């Protein structure tokens, strides 16, 4: 990608709004030196922190603090950057911003600093996204995964795969040019083995990317069941606090109750729902409708039943509900049946017996939740990944499998070459080497202002 020439200078606070000890303001673009001379009375020495006074148009002090100057191209954005560290009062920050805007800068859009770093070849798209993921990380494992992506581990794996695809494409397209020769270049084991190895490498990357996506985005787990079986008690036990009202009166929960919990590094969005039953109450009917909708959208369903009821209650309860998510049947209230916590598999269904009230069996449930959604016990080697990365990897995989069938059945070189090209384009979307402006706009608009 060629370096992009950008005429505008941008400015934004890089620290959250509000009162604080320090506020950081970043300026990037071609007018940084001019702004620095008028705001500070000098251009600071490159990459040296210096104490100075920030002045208005009449020369009166606005604030004082530390400044750092990073001349391009050796800066985060590849442009001249001035970083101002002043006091964190809202009026101080506002005064500095108004002064800088008057000197010719404009307010940066969300993610525009990272976007310029990408456009100036300082970062690829995966690394740029990893900055936002690192800021939003909700666990230590997610932080480590984001750092691996930021340091280029994910990108390097994609580049290696793309290089392997390019080498195979060169061979296949050369074979097409020699179609009149007696030698069947595409019929040799070399092409088939190389394609098989590329697919195997892609499988490994997909597995790591899925782990990274789980650490970043988490899963949606719906708690469903009949009224008064302990759904809210289970949510309270999993969250470790009293987030739901628990009573002996059936139908206490009528609306959806959401709770965000980090389980061994994986974010889980638990949704407690209204008890599923026939009701004449209009409000409760709406709650039941919403419960069924959430079950259809869920990544995981926890179906809670009373341990004193037979398992046929579950079949009657879920008979007319269609969903694709894995389901765990939870036999709650074993404290009333004098049972020990157990986990069994019966007719393809996982059944866990526990007591939400006493907490027995909760660890069994937590471990099974992690395995149900595919979270591995170790996050070593995992890198931060997004849904769009998973989608691109999946499309690349489908093109490669189609190409493999072409090779096995008809040895149609032109069709195989096209599948390889499409797979390469799908992988290149991940790092941004092949992408549309619309895609870039959607990605960077989700970043923080000042990043």
Précis, in short:
It contains 14 helices and 13 strands. With 451 residues, it is of the alpha/beta class.
Count of discrete alpha- or pi-helical segments spanning 4 or more residues = 14
Question: How do the SSEs run, as a string of H and E?
Answer: EEHEEEHEHHHHHEHEEHEHEEEHHHH
- Measured by DSSP, the beta-strand proportion falls in 15-25%
Helix content: 40-55%
CATH class of the largest domain: Alpha Beta
Describe the structure.
It is a single chain. The protein is of the alpha/beta class and 451 residues long. The chain folds into two domains: 10-124, Gyrase A, domain 2; 125-432, Rossmann fold (3-Layer(aba) Sandwich). It contains 14 helices and 13 strands. The strands form two sheets. It has a seven-stranded mixed beta sheet, with helices on both faces. Helix 10 (312-318) links the parallel strand 10 (300-306) and strand 11 (327-332). Helix 4 packs antiparallel against helix 5. The chain is flat, with a radius of gyration of 29 Å. The model is unreliable at 249-254 (pLDDT under 50).
